[in-house]
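re: ur question from yesterday

yeah so i grabbed the chain u mentioned. its 196 aa long if i counted rite. heres the sequnce exactly as i have it in my notes:
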Amino acid sequence: MKLCVFQGTFNPIHLAHLKMADFVLKNYNFDKIIFIPAYRPPHKNYDIKLTPHRMEMVKLATHINPRFNVSDIEYQNERNSYTYLTILELYKKYDIEGKINFIIGTDAFKKIDTWYEADKLKNLVDFIVFSRENEPDTAKYDELKSKGYNFNFAKMDFEDISSTNIRQSIKAGKDISKYVTNNVKGYIETHGLYKN
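ran it thru and got these structure tokens back, copy pasting raw so excuse formatting
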């Protein structure tokens, strides 16, 4: 099986996440994309009370595409969500053809060599990098290439949507309909998320 992974905090999952995953399915030859919400993201501040809600919102947002799967692999262990350990588990769980591919934004990828067991992780995955800026300076990534990180830049137009801005909009009482799916918007409203 040709597998691509989309790991993230998804706090909340939004339309740019879905567009990125759709782009990968249409432009790369993968059998499925597995969304993996981080249980305890080591590089981000997070509210533990939102952990189960983040998982439910990812399930709601992705159910429309049968080639999108959601994994609770990081929730089963209730530990820091280290990508290296998760990828090892996925290789044990699935019969993988070639390497697992990993969707990542330029903001996170710039810091990839600071991640847990990064030197081992780079040998296990190929990265599909999406721009989080209008015109990324691809020269910045030459150093990562020289360190053995294998990656390609996705040729998708920059989508200026972020979970941070969505949370701020909710606090300010603004409509978020253009940023999230209707069922995710309904879930956020029903559970009163991100108001404080």
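noticed a couple things. DSSP finds nine helices and six strands in the chain. also The mean pLDDT is 92.
anyway ttyl
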